[in-house]
Amino acid sequence: MFIKAGLITLALLLPAMASPVTEGLGTRVTFDKRDGITTQDGWFDHKRAVELVVRDRNKHRQNMINLERNMGREAFNEGAEIMPLANYSELAPHDKRQAEPLTDEAGDQYWAGTIAIGTPRQNFLIDFDTGSSDLWVPSVNCTSAYCSKKDKYNPASSSSSSPKNGEFSIQYGDGSTVSGPVYTETVAVAGITVKNQYFSPVDTISPSFGSEADDGILGLAFPAISNLGKSPWFNTAKSEGAVKNGVFGFKLAKSGSELYLGGTDSSLYTGAIEYHPVTGSGFWQIKGASILIGSNTIQSGFQTIIDSGTTIIYGPPNAVAAFYKNIPNSQVYDSTNGFYSFPCSSVPSNVAFSWGGNTWTISAANFNFGRVSATQCIGAIAGQDLGLGKNTWLLGDSFMKNVYSAFSFDANSVGFATLK
Ligand SMILES: *[C@@H]1O[C@H](CO)[C@@H](O)[C@H](O)[C@H]1NC(C)=O
Ligand SMILES: *[C@@H]1O[C@H](CO)[C@@H](O)[C@H](O)[C@H]1NC(C)=O
């Protein structure tokens, strides 16, 4: 059973102080979070984790295909490539822990809030994804079981719908694609209404989406990785003047999560936001990162992509192996998918990333994906080549939950601040 818990609060805030990219009135979307990788009784859900690895790999494979098509190969990071399609049946775990009972909500690890499409409004529960750039929701033509619990868009009951040429299609490794026609529509998020937004009402979704509470995805990354090759929703909001500032901010937490559109919500963080310039053209990518354990720098000088649509933190397999060498009594748990375990009695609470300013620590709770035996637990950092570049890490929610994060198109930068 899934509870559609996303809700919108429209709030007028006092102008934020200090930093030039934080001022202005914005609106907030609040939403709920349930973890999918850890079962309610604290076990690592290996099968679900591998489903997510496959999805993350194929999502970023598609991003690279889109980037090549939109910008050419010269936009690739050094060593980046279009990886082969990842295939769940080849990567699936075969260990006995699969019998561990799952809770009803275990499949739902996304941050979901409500958006409205069409005139009159049709509501959808959406995963806001800083790691992709397209908007899709199921359409009335999605009649498979995977769509049975979803809200479905019907263009026939909207006076603002307009069919366009082309086809939207993202391949997933579970033997299916998410695909559908292309439309423009009026799309409202938290009181910010955008007209003529390109999106896809999809008629097929892949099985791994079927079990989730959210209906679709709203991509918040750059136009360069758009599959539709069109302006993503937030960029359209900025160009149409629906938001004054091209800045949004995330707080991701077990409860009280919020996406703030058109600025940052200074009631949620203390101190200044530490901004770093975006490198490259498609992703919220910043360079010069280090990973530390306590005061020891384990790796440094790498690129990082900040991806709210991904739970796991991925690094290059060799770098991640070197990292776990510094976690006492850690060992490889699943070499195919890059997961490591360590003693549950000593979950690291001092793993941190830094971009030369503050060190941003991952709490023990956020580092621990759950137990796989009486004594061993799985870490949130996995070794995996996603094709994003040879020295590139992808920081998902397990990192983002520890900080307030700000994404500025205006200043072309990503920033972090200390959560209140
Ligand atoms: C649904 O399918 C019908 C028949 O193929 C097609 O005419 C219609 O445009 C489709 N609607 C959407 C939203 O894809
Ligand atoms: C995945 O791998 C299995 C086993 O090798 C193969 O039978 C299947 O066709 C593959 N599926 C896809 C979508 O590539």
UniProtKB/TrEMBL annotation:
Q: Which GO terms describe its biological process?
A: proteolysis
Keyword annotations for this protein, in alphabetical order, are: Aspartyl protease, Disulfide bond, Hydrolase, Protease, Signal
The leader peptide range reads 1-18
Q: Which InterPro entries match?
A: Aspartic_peptidase_A1, Aspartic_peptidase_AS, Pepsin-like_dom, PEPTIDASE_A1, Peptidase_aspartic_dom_sf
Keyword match Nucleotidyltransferase: no
Q: What terms describe the molecular function in GO for this protein?
A: aspartic-type endopeptidase activity
Would the keyword ATP-binding turn up in this protein's UniProt record? Answer: no
**Pfam families in the record:** Asp
Annotated active site residues, numbered on this chain, are: 129, 307
Q: List the disulfide bonds.
A: 142-147
Where do the Peptidase A1 domain residues begin and end? 111-417
Family affiliation: Belongs to the peptidase A1 family.
Q: Report what the protein is called.
A: Protease
**What species is this protein from?**
Trametes coccinea (strain BRFM310) (Pycnoporus coccineus)
Taxonomy-wise, where does this protein's organism fall, top ranks first? Eukaryota, Fungi, Dikarya, Basidiomycota, Agaricomycotina
